[in-house]
């Protein structure tokens, strides 16, 4: 049997959350180790290296808020790509010596709790054993990729690549390429591949109500000026807005607005680009069907202006919205809608003619048409939000795996911990605000809360903490209730509700109440001595 290593805290994942945890646990004078499945830092940006992969949050908000880090780092674009984010993580490592406490190529397969000694025993795929008082799951929302089961896929003579497992060497130039999926990833990879390949066939099930990214270069001088005058204010603002961006939803009731006011608002938000049109508009976008339709009509008009062909217009920006605007995550695009007017691009609407099978030479749809291709790209997404956690065999006080426990729905307290799994926390995962918000904003909020909790426990002789069933029930009901009001349920396949994975329980997987409300709940529990948790004192 291999010898085990002991740490105060074991962290799973070396993206933004894992690195933030490590740095701040060190500050408490405790020991920590990150176990990372990949061979380098950057989390989602380690895995997602397909052409065009870039973040949908603008600078400067998508980075650590620590001034010691941002003062010496400059991004070149408003929305940086994966290469630049990877370089940023290398810079953070140089500054803070992260890698010395990371075990790379260490995929965690199990974590079992021992109630008699208040310890986790964690095993990695290569058979190494680690023990720790605390387990911090920083696995992100998109770590388990989704490979759809399509008849005949094993018979295909060409290559098949999921976007999050992009081939280092494959040259797409001159190839016939098929892409399944038009989510955030599909949009990015499609607009990048189209000019490079001989032919691109896109298989679209649901049109993406994508918004203009308004990407631009950022000079070092511009950023220095922002650093001098704005960074502190912008990072402070993160916790005051619904989505952790500097802009916010507008609570003014639609009934008190005029049509002219709304038209001007739409135009202004559109010009600003990014998520402004989604998360900077009137809050009623998510509850008021009439207003939502008005927003969709504006979006459709703007998009149709960019598509000359009426048939393509109807496929990409249909008269009838496929779902209420914004209840499925909109993506940010650059020239995406122009791509389909290219001679070398074909758009196949598989909501009408579904995928029948993959043949040795391509893909056949239900109308009998076969589309030939050399390579098939699966931009088919992930077992979002829960997949990173449920793919580890995690067993708590009652020995039941979290996968089994959550088979009839996720339950948590404060989107950070679950009853019967003591001293286990997660960041940016189930029932937290996660991707309704800017990643690092939510991540730092939760990570700091966990650090303060561990500090409190160490200072007060508390050896374990676990949510009570009652508090968990109440919190989970709150998330379910917030997710059941309004228009959220209007999208057939949204991953927000787990609807993209067959057999997954339909429920709102993220906290849809915004950062200030979420932070208030977390802080109130802490202020009341971690109300809603059972605390075990050392020696008790
Ligand atoms: P998404 O947003 O889940 O998109 C997956 C896409 O793949 C979407 O267009 C799906 O169509 C399509 N899809 C999935 N399975 C199938 C099958 N079996 N047949 C046809 N089409 C399919 O994943 P992304 O990687 O784009 O983005 C995930 C998140 O990562 C993103 O929101 C950001 O937060 C970062 P559908 O729309 O369900 O009809």
From TrEMBL:
<dbReference type="InterPro" id="IPR050775">
    <property type="entry name" value="FAD-binding_Monooxygenases"/>
</dbReference>
<dbReference type="InterPro" id="IPR020946">
    <property type="entry name" value="Flavin_mOase-like"/>
</dbReference>
<keyword id="KW-0274">FAD</keyword>
<protein>
    <submittedName>
        <fullName>Cyclohexanone monooxygenase</fullName>
    </submittedName>
</protein>
<dbReference type="GO" id="GO:0004497">
    <property type="term" value="F:monooxygenase activity"/>
</dbReference>
<keyword id="KW-0560">Oxidoreductase</keyword>
<dbReference type="Pfam" id="PF00743">
    <property type="entry name" value="FMO-like"/>
</dbReference>
<keyword id="KW-0521">NADP</keyword>
<keyword id="KW-0503">Monooxygenase</keyword>
<keyword id="KW-0285">Flavoprotein</keyword>
<dbReference type="InterPro" id="IPR036188">
    <property type="entry name" value="FAD/NAD-bd_sf"/>
</dbReference>
<comment type="similarity">
    <text>Belongs to the FAD-binding monooxygenase family.</text>
</comment>
């Amino acid at each position: 049997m291999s010898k085990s290593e002991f740490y105060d805290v074991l962290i799973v994942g070396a993206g933004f959350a894992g690195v933030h945890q490590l740095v701040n646990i060190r500050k408490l004078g405790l020991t920590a180790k990150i176990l990372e499945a990949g061979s380098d830092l950057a989390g989602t940006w380690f895995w997602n290296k397909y052409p065009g992969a870039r973040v949908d949050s603008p600078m400067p908000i998508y980075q650590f808020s620590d001034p010691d880090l941002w003062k010496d780092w400059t991004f070149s674009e408003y929305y940086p790509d994966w290469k630049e984010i990877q370089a940023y993580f290398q810079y953070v490592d140089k500054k803070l010596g992260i890698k010395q406490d990371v075990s790379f190529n260490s995929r965690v397969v199990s974590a079992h709790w021992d109630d008699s000694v208040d310890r986790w025993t964690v095993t990695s795929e290569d058979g190494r054993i680690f023990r720790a008082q605390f387990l911090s799951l920083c696995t992100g929302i998109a770590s388990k990729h989704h490979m759809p089961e399509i008849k005949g896929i094993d018979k295909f003579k060409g290559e098949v690549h999921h976007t999050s497992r992009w081939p280092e060497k494959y040259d797409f130039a001159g190839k016939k390429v098929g892409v399944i999926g038009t989510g955030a990833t599909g949009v990015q990879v499609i607009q990048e591949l189209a000019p490079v390949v001989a032919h691109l066939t896109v298989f679209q099930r649901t049109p993406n109500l994508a918004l203009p990214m308004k990407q631009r270069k950022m000079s070092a001088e511009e950023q220095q000026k922002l650093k001098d005058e704005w960074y502190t204010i912008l990072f402070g603002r993160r916790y005051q807005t619904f989505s952790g961006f500097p802009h916010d939803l507008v609570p003014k009731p639609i009934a008190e607005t005029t049509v002219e006011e709304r038209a001007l608002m739409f135009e202004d938000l559109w010009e600003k680009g990014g998520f402004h049109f989604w998360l900077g508009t009137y809050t009623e976008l998510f509850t008021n069907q009439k207003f939502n339709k008005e927003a969709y009509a504006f979006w459709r008009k703007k998009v149709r202006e960019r598509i000359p062909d009426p048939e393509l217009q109807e496929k990409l920006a249909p008269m009838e919205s496929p779902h209420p605007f914004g209840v499925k995550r909109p993506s940010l695009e650059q020239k995406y809608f122009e791509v389909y007017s290219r001679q070398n691009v074909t758009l196949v609407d598989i909501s009408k003619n579904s995928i029948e099978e993959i043949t040795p030479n391509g893909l056949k749809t239900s109308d009998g048409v076969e589309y030939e291709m050399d390579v098939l790209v699966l931009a088919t997404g992930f077992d979002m939000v829960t997949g990173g956690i449920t793919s580890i065999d995690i067993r708590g006080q009652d020995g039941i795996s979290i996968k089994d426990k959550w088979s009839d729905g996720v339950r948590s307290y404060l989107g950070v911990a679950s009853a019967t799994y003591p001293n286990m926390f997660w960041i940016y995962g189930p029932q937290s605000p996660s991707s309704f918000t800017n990643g690092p904003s939510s991540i730092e909020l939760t990570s700091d809360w966990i650090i303060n909790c561990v500090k409190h426990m160490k200072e007060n002789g508390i050896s374990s903490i676990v949510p009570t069933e009652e508090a968990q029930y109440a919190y989970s009901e709150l998330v379910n209730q917030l997710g059941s009001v309004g228009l959220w349920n209007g999208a057939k396949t949204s991953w927000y509700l787990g609807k993209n994975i067959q057999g997954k329980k339909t429920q709102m997987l993220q906290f849809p109440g915004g950062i200030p409300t979420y932070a208030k709940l977390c802080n109130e529990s802490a202020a009341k001595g971690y109300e809603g948790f059972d605390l075990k004192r050392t020696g008790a």
